[in-house]
Amino acid sequence: MDRRQFFERLLGGTALSLYALRELNGAIYDSINSLNDAYQQVPSPDGAYWDAVKKHYLMENNLIMMNNGTVGPIPQPVYNTMMEYFKVQMTTPSDLYTYFPAKVEEVRYKLASFANVSSDEVAITRNTTEGLNFVANGLDMKEGDEVLMSNLEHPSMTNAWRLKAKRYGIKVTEVPLGVPPKSVEEIVDAFRKAITPRTKIIAVAHTIFITGLITPLKELSDLAHKNGLLILADSAHGIGMIDLKLHDWGVDFYASSPYKWLGAPPEAGFFYVRKDVQDKLWPTIGFSGWDTYKTAKRFETFSQRADALVMGLGEALNFQTVIGKSRVERRVKSLASYLKSSLRDIPGFKLHTNTDEYLSAGLTAFSIKGVNPEDVVNHVREKYNIVVRTIGNADRGTLGVRVSTHIFVSTRDIDLLVQGVREVARNSGA
Length: 430
Prior knowledge:
The protein is built from 16 helices and 13 strands. It is α/β, with parallel strands linked by helices. The strands form three sheets. A seven-stranded mixed sheet has the order 2-8-7-6-5-3-4, sandwiched between helices. Strands 9-10-13-12 form a four-stranded antiparallel sheet, covered by helices on one side. Helix 4 runs antiparallel to helix 13, helix 6 packs parallel to helix 13 and helix 15 (about 375-385) crosses helix 16.
């Protein structure tokens, strides 16, 4: 083999290919670090900083994406990483069992650090739904035992426990919450009053998809543990929108979908099981390791999976970490506050989301009396290329429009949205 052939083969190999990936992504992170240095005195600037960050997201140039609550765009480094690892996976299949396992463990450690927990408490699932079902399926409960959940839960939560009820005769009790509730005390008191001697677990959304409420997990966890109960949080939107502090909050189980706000690919989920309660939860899937692993890894025994998606999750964690978790949360909340204040003088406007930043973050839901929410969604997409969605149920008083304000959204974008809402309201005679 001559020198040229040697280098041609080397350039096609895994090691140098991944080295090139690190160089490519590293250039992007260097640019963000330069922005951090330039704007270090400004915690959440609107303008040059976030406009520059937005350029690293893969979106159609004129698209204004305000529906991270369903699925979000991914940053360029995440795309680069997925494509490169898919190439490795497809061209060097032996790496699936020699090289990839250690890389998956690196992602587990990154997830743990990002959520302020131990790596022994982290399982890498496919999505929130899977984590919620792992808890519903895995807890020993008998006929008559009770689970409490709010009246605003996602179908992933309600159906996991409805299935358990149908199979084992447990009782599912809904706890009514206001739209929006007035205070932390109102939420905690509602659950306190609902607890009975048969209650075993509180299962509640941390980030409520219908109204944008952020439930007070720390206070609810304290309530649960004082009464000898477990607590499960559905936080499909939490990771990447809020700076997670799961140990501080005291929650027992926490399931999230990084493909919404973190910028990860679909089918790479986050499931947290507090170390002290792991022995109370049976694994749902029986495969090698379910009975020998001494950590939360026992809940992700799936056999072979698309590890390139897990690598993409790891890169999404890198991307937000470089920007700064607390900076992301501040930006998300400041944009949501700007949206709420910009909408409030529209005749017939009703806000379904709290204005208190402890009880709200990046999801804002609202309605306009006499206006069909679908008309708003269609109008702003057709005229301004803004993506939002309808949400809720008229009978429950939650039907409206839901807006996601992530870091790549600007106040200019929000102004366009508000203008579109005003146009629909005016044309409908509201």
